[in-house]
């Protein structure tokens, strides 16, 4: 799955900027507000934009039906999507609505796909009208189906990337691509780091040092063999895992020094992470990882803690702040070294590295780009006499 977002737009009057150009944002999301981690990039950016403009957040659309025996936790996925659709339209903030369209079960048959496209589009138009949104720009997180992705990229006005390798490879989009990168809830994480001596009940009594991880645990991202090797090699360290798991991790959690806290609300991540002595990114080495950009790297940096990771793209951006380990043995040795690197001076250096990357700043950049595109379109229209 590629990590990029697409902005498309609806026409707006020329000569104006900011809130005067648009009266809202339509976000066709790649996640579901009701059951996915709200730390995802598009969620954080939309929450920030909602402080300036009304936002309609359309939950992720099913692109394929989970199949028992093929998809992981297929029954659970179907149930939670049905629960999401049952919620319909909900207002979650003064200027933000979340909408789960009703659709037929997705399948490969062309007529079903066409019917779903019309059904979903009609519902979104009705909701936009109901909430009074007339002039908006559209943010679309690309679907995980390549034919849909290619069509979307051709129609987009601008493509935003969080991975430079992916951006450089998409040569045909030269004039329409920008690197945005991820943001971080900088103030929240820095504040949590100042209160790190206040230990949450879940971590009270754990043996130090604490090696921590937060994020989804999936079969295409997380190296469980590496985690088990590290935990077994370092019995004097506590390993804390925070996040939803789509895998059976009982073999790992059966170890006495491994503590799995499961899914936690996004607002608690900083509080728990502040107690970590080291933050880890134990990623598998595959194509998906090569084109990704884990948000947790900036979150760890905002907490001021040392980072040990397998080879990942963000490590190149912070070569002096992320310890990269290519083998299991190197990972263990890097953890041993990292626990000694928590000086106040180094904490400040890490935090300084991401202080300009707040989600507020990213949202402001997105809005500025959208306004600039609209101004260019308006000028072109006027120049053509239209």
3D structure, described in words:
The relative contact order is 0.15. Helix 6 (186-194) packs across helix 11 (296-303) and helix 7 (224-233) crosses helix 12. The chain is built from 14 helices and 14 strands. It is 38% helix and 16% strand. The strands form two sheets. The chain has an eight-stranded mixed β-sheet with strand order 4-5-3-2-6-1-7-8, sandwiched between helices. The protein has a six-stranded parallel β-sheet with strand order 11-10-9-12-13-14, sandwiched between helices. It has 386 residues and is of the alpha/beta class. The model is unreliable at 11-15 (pLDDT under 50). Strand 9, helix 7 (224-233) and strand 10 (238-242) form a beta-alpha-beta unit.
Short structural summary:
This protein has 386 residues and is an alpha/beta fold. It is 38% helix and 16% strand.
In terms of DSSP E residues, the strand content is 15-25%
Placed side by side, the strands forming the largest sheet appear as 4-5-3-2-6-1-7-8
Report the mean per-residue pLDDT as an integer. 87
Main sheet: strands, sense, barrel: 8 strands, mixed
Q: What is the global morphology?
A: globular
Extract low-pLDDT stretches.
Answer: 11-15
Number of helices: 14
Helix content: 25-40%
Order of helices and strands: EEHEHEEHEHEHEHEHEHEHEHHEEHHH
The number of strands is 14
Q: Descriptors for this entry?
A:
386 residues, alpha/beta, eight-stranded mixed beta sheet, six-stranded parallel beta sheet, 14 helices, 16% strand
